[in-house]
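A common beginner's mistake is to predict each chain separately and then try to dock the pieces by hand. The better habit, illustrated here, is to supply every component at once so that their relative placement is modeled jointly.
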Amino acid sequence: MAVEPPTFQLGLALLYWLAAFTSCCVMGLLVGFVASLASYGRNGPRVFRSTLARGFQDLVKVSWQRCQALASLTFKEATSRKAFLIGFLFILLFMFGGWFLSESNVEKPAMPYITFVMSAIYFLLNIMALLIACWGLPADIKARSLHTVVTKPVRRSEIVLGRMMGYSAVVLIVLAVTSIFGYFWIQRQVPERAKDQLIARVPVYGEIRFLSRSGQPAKSLTNVGDLWDYRTYVEGLTQARAIWEFDSLNVSELRKQGYVRLEQSFEAFRTFKGDVSDQVRYRITLLNPESGLRVPMPESYDVNEFSEDPEASVVIIPEELTYVESYDVDAEEKTVNLFDDVFDGNSLTVEIACIENEQYLGVARGDLFIRMPDRPFYVSYIKSIAGLGMMLILVVGLGTTASCFLKGPVSTFLTGSLIVLGNIFYEFVKDIYSQKVVQGRVLGGGMFESMYRLVTQMNMQSPLPDNVGTDIIKFLDERVFNLLFVVNAVIPNFTYFNTNQYTANGFDVPWMGALVPSFLITIGYLIPLIILGYFSLQLRELESK
Amino acid sequence: MSDSVIEIRNLSKVYRDFWGRAKVRALNSLSLDVKRGEVFGLLGPNGSGKTTTLKLLLGLLFPTEGQVRILGEPAHDVEKNERIGYLPEESYLYRFLNADETLDFYGKLFKMTKAERRERRDALIKRVGLEHARRRQLKEYSKGMTRRIGLAQALINDPELVLLDEPTSGLDPLGTADMKEMIRELKNEGKTVVMCSHLLADVQDVCDRIAILFRGELKVIGSVQELLEAKEETQLVTSSLDDATIREVESVLEKHGANLKSFSHPTSTLEELFLRTVKESEARPGRRFEPGERPSATTES
Ligand SMILES: Nc1ncnc2c1ncn2[C@@H]1O[C@H](COP(=O)(O)OP(=O)(O)OP(=O)(O)O)[C@@H](O)[C@H]1O
Ligand SMILES: [Mg+2]
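With all components supplied together, the output reads:
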């Protein structure tokens, strides 16, 4: 089993961010303009303009020294509020937690320990980040100690930034301490026979494209009637091909290893009943699109989809490749070097054909990957922790911003809800979205349609009556869907940050699949959060009501 | 640059609750100027709007109507704060810091270098007499000690305008005397001081000009001398005299047709003015000081 990372397209993400950011700004400006008209009447536009100009200055002319001073103040404040006790709580949890974990997973004995540590850190620190970030500023305003600060030449943007930096430092320190503790705890607790599971396997995924049965480039191949079209099917003994291109490979690491290890998880689809144990076979050809070199691997391979043996799905490609260009008996044998001749720079292209008449080979992007040399467990562990750290910074950012205009309990509630939503909402909306796009409709309809069905006890499949009521329901549902998509575009997708699954299953955490997106998401949210926090603090009287 | 350090024009403030309903009209159309280099006293009974005025000047509150200019800038300007020191009504400081850390922190907010901060901090702690307690957290401080560190904090940047909200509240007599001395020193250094207080003796001692607020309205404004000179009395303050000397002075006075009414400590005549103003304002609400009117006119009746 491999954990296939979601694809993350940097350019697209950036474009999305720009679109979302711009529309949020435009909306904010509109709301601000209307509000200034409402409260200042004829002077509204002038006030609006000067507020904006001031805001721009305050956000651009931030002083690093003042931010640092405010951050270290925040840090001391958190210390004085005993925030670090969370660390002790964590360690306490572990002194007893181990008793309940023994041998719960037979197949992967190491997994429960890793999962336990990571989820304990995840929950404790999230709660900690949430609480300290949401309560600090309101307490500061209530005690009016902030009065003394804002009457110094301090920009409110510096207050927001300084707070975020201070809380982040607190949370990251606790994170570092608990995760170091957790690491040694895992090393001690995992039973000796399962120690080899503490590893970071490194699958490298490629991009997939297809050739149709007549050899033309195609978006996808045969659909065998699965509702869920994760896989597409390569028809046997036609010109249909699935082609993977693996980019940005670390060639020197592979050279040192001396071979390339491919792992597959294809599915065999049989059109006639035969013996299930009869294997469907496939053939591999390595391509160099630059030089036009085609190297067919001399053997063919079994799909082995039901095999228990993990090595049954492995194909080793040696550095020295000896092959014949055609299958003629008297064809000449040739020898090439995998890394020098077949690799195009640091990318490798692999073409898969099914060689079973009237059988199909089910393939998806994640079904073929290159296994790089394994890395030590701590690599994956540290990366997971780093992902978590970025999530915590985002939580701190959300909490601090909320606390700029809300009181402690309310901002805790708001931020907490955002975290929960950010963890589940995305999947929920993605499901609706894919149903809409792939099937053209959502099973059971949207909010209003399903309410209608619920009330009339109509089943989910039968069509609605053809009348005006239906049109109205459909129209409203469409708006609700759009609203959902908009909300989804604004709520942070926290699922990226939780990379425990990789680590617990013995995989390395991929950069592009998890860490880079987490980092960008964090930055992407912090920028508008700081702006929002600044204006909320700037435009309010610092008098607790 | 004009010689008005503070200009307040038609300033009104209505406190509203969460729903935006008006609760209190804390200031009503206040106009006054504070000149460069003077010590200005803002007087008034509890709840008359003194603190509100200061907060409006500092941009902590937003005016309902009217404008303020402070050091020639609008209240929300950040950079003007470089030249302002503010001692809040209660010293709102961070209770988990000690005196050293507190001053260091505020010093950093002015982008002072480490050496500058250390020098300034040591001088101020000495000046407010907290050397014995500089390493103790502020939460352990008594009220007067908190006041002292609050003052030190307000002076950290060597400000050219100092706003003091009840500087002597909570201070012992010695502290009060120190405070007055310090205010005089500030004046001598050419700084402008605005202070709120109820302790009229203090105000009388140090202020050049005063304004009396009542329920958010300006009732009296003028120089202390001007406001009190209508009195047909002369006060003599000398170093301690023995009985013989006092009799001698008496005889000299008799010769000139005057008699010695008392030879105790001077009474605060400002107190009389204050009480009279408040009583009058209560009796005749609505009447208030108009620019151009002679200030003592309100006090004559
Ligand atoms: N945050 C607030 N919310 C509502 N009303 C307020 C608030 N602060 C002050 N007030 C009201 O405004 C009026 C003026 O208050 P202010 O604090 O300015 O008086 P003050 O002259 O400083 O009084 P004191 O001598 O007691 O310090 C009072 O009626 C007070 O109740
Ligand atoms: Mg007051």
